[in-house]
Structures are given as C-alpha cells and as structure tokens.
Amino acid sequence: MPSKVLFASARLPQLGKEYSLTYKFRKALEESPLSGMVERGNIVAVKVHVGDLEGGGYRFIRPLFVRILVDYLKQLGALPFITDTWGLRHVYAGLQNGFGYETVGAPLLPANGIKENFFYEVELENYYHLKR
Length: 132
Hints:
Radius of gyration: 17 Å
Oligomer: single chain
Distance between the termini: 33 Å
Strand order of the largest sheet: 1-2-3
Structural class: alpha/beta
Number of strands: 3
Largest sheet: 3 strands, parallel
Helix content: 25-40%
Order of helices and strands: HHEHEHHE
Shape: globular
C-alpha cells in the first residue's frame, strides 16, 4: 500500500495565520498517522540535523518547526528529545544554531555518545553494499 504524502505549499495567497507554513505544518501533523503511533509515556527521539560549527552550516530545519513537532508530541503524552548522530561538538553546534531547550522545548542529546563512540554492530541480511 503506498504511503500517504502530506504537502503544504509555502506560498501565501493572502495574509492570515491559516496561510502560514507553521499553521499548515500543525495541520499536517494532525492529519498524519503520528497520533496512532505514539502512546502516552513513550520516549520519542526527534532526529534532526543541527548544523555544524566550522562551516557555518545553515541547511537544517528551522528550530520553530521542531518546536511545533515537540509540542504536538507532548500533547500526545510523549516525552520527546532532539538528537543528532554526532557527539558533543554537534550539541554545541545545535545550541549555537537555536536548538536549545528554551527554543525547541526538549533536550538535545547526542545519539552517538559525547565522544562519538557509542554504537553497536549488528548483522544485516540481504544488504550487499554494506561491509564491516
């Protein structure tokens, strides 16, 4: 069965909050199947790219949209946290780029540990391009 894709145009046909992209994003979350996937008390990781420190990276989702998602997850009774796969350096980058608790409403935790060495090796079947 094909997945349902939700689309929201960034165009503003006229002024009004119901035409803003943040409003459309909230509505898309309500229409999404997310409410049926998250149970009260679930700890939910919100994986985002938080940018980097050296290059002045700016290609990340704006923290405002992450906050909207976090607030929605909290409405569902979840305990969300923000994560990126890198370590402590990317936590600093995330804070510099606006992903602090005060902005997004959830803590930023590195998925790979603060030294970027927290991982498990797993066996994969039927994946021919991945080698140890």
